[in-house]
Design a protein that fits this description.
This protein has two domains: 142 residues, Rossmann fold (3-Layer(aba) Sandwich); 119 residues, Dihydrodipicolinate Reductase, domain 2 (2-Layer Sandwich). The chain starts with a strand and ends with a helix. Helix content is 45%, strand content 24%. It is of the alpha/beta class. The radius of gyration is 19 Å and the shape is globular. Strands 3-2-1-4-5-6 form a six-stranded parallel β-sheet, sandwiched between helices. Helix 1 crosses helix 10, helix 4 runs parallel beside helix 5 and helix 9 packs across helix 11. It is built from eleven helices and twelve strands.
Length: 297
């Protein structure tokens, strides 16, 4: 691009401080232009750290930027993302896209109507390791099933343990989108949740059906004392067995790759991407299917 994208950051929590703000400030294609949160003193502190300014309102932030990055709870993101899209701003979104399917649909519709770029930060999806793994699966074909385990103690620690929305919505909303996204990409679109169970400690077990005819199983939790986090994906079938593990500390690499794609899409006029708002709506529907299947037990 001829000039850096001016990006406003909404949110100043742990993820905004460690990933979004430094990533936007350091990427050659973007400039961290303004920070806004509902707590002015927090926004000012983060803005000062990166030699930028704190906006006094969301409307003021919109007036100064080409794009908006969100690092806020899903319900808040859905509300402000619609406003930003209607103002013609490109969007960097967190998972899940929203709190529920209706809100996610409003975001996806606003993005389509405004013809803006919107990318969802699905951390593992942007890494070179994952992209090569998925490409290899596509070339081989013949996959009959798979499984995923994402077992973490994130909500037992200080960094994310103080996150009200994560405590309220649990592991399904927090790490479910990452997990379902990769199994969906590996085995074909997830079309049904055949069974789902959540125990009293927020440990989920889910059985999925894919458009390809494959089935897969998922185990999710953010409340088990796992150190390091166990994140494993595997598929099996006519082409054998192939697995993928999540490497620690890939957040910065992933966000840089997201920004690479984001800037390129805006410059080229491309609007579709494997991790766009339509993908976010699809994943939101899967979360809803899991909740419904668990209630039917």
């Amino acid at each position: 691009m001829d000039a850096q994208l001016r990006v406003g950051l909404v949110g100043a929590g742990p993820w905004a401080r460690t990933v979004h703000a430094p990533g936007l400030a350091e990427h050659p294609g973007t400039s961290l232009t303004a920070v806004w949160t509902r707590r002015p003193e927090v926004a000012s502190a983060l803005a000062e750290e990166h030699c930028t300014q704190a906006a006094t309102s969301f409307e003021e932030l919109l007036d100064q930027v080409d794009a908006v990055a969100f690092a806020v709870p899903p319900s808040v993101q859905a509300e402000y993302a619609v406003l930003a899209a209607k103002a013609g701003k490109h969007l960097i979104l967190e998972k899940p896209l929203a709190h529920d399917v209706d809100s996610a649909r409003r975001v996806a519709d606003a993005v389509a109507e405004a013809d803006v770029v919107a990318l969802l930060m699905l951390t593992m999806r942007y890494t070179l390791q994952t992209r090569e793994w998925l490409a290899g699966l596509g070339e081989a074909g013949g996959w009959k099933g798979g499984n995923a385990r994402w077992l973490s103690g994130a909500l037992l620690g200080e960094k994310y343990g103080n996150s009200p929305w994560r405590q309220a919505e649990g592991s399904l909303s927090d790490i479910g989108p990452h997990t379902f996204d990769l199994l969906d990409a590996a085995l074909g679109e997830i079309t049904a949740v055949l069974a789902a169970h959540r125990d009293a400690g927020d440990l989920w077990h889910v059985l999925l059906e894919h458009e390809s005819g494959a089935t897969s199983t998922v185990a999710l939790t953010t409340r088990l004392p796992m150190r390091p986090t166990v994140t494993e994906f595997a598929v099996y079938g006519d082409s054998g067995f192939r697995s993928l593990s999540r490497k620690p500390g890939l957040e910065t690499e992933s966000f840089t790759a997201l920004l690479d794609d984001f800037a390129a899409m805006i410059a080229s006029g491309v609007r579709t991407h494997d991790c766009d708002a339509t993908r976010g709506l699809h994943l939101q529907r899967i979360l809803a299917m899991c909740l419904e299947a668990a209630r039917l037990r």
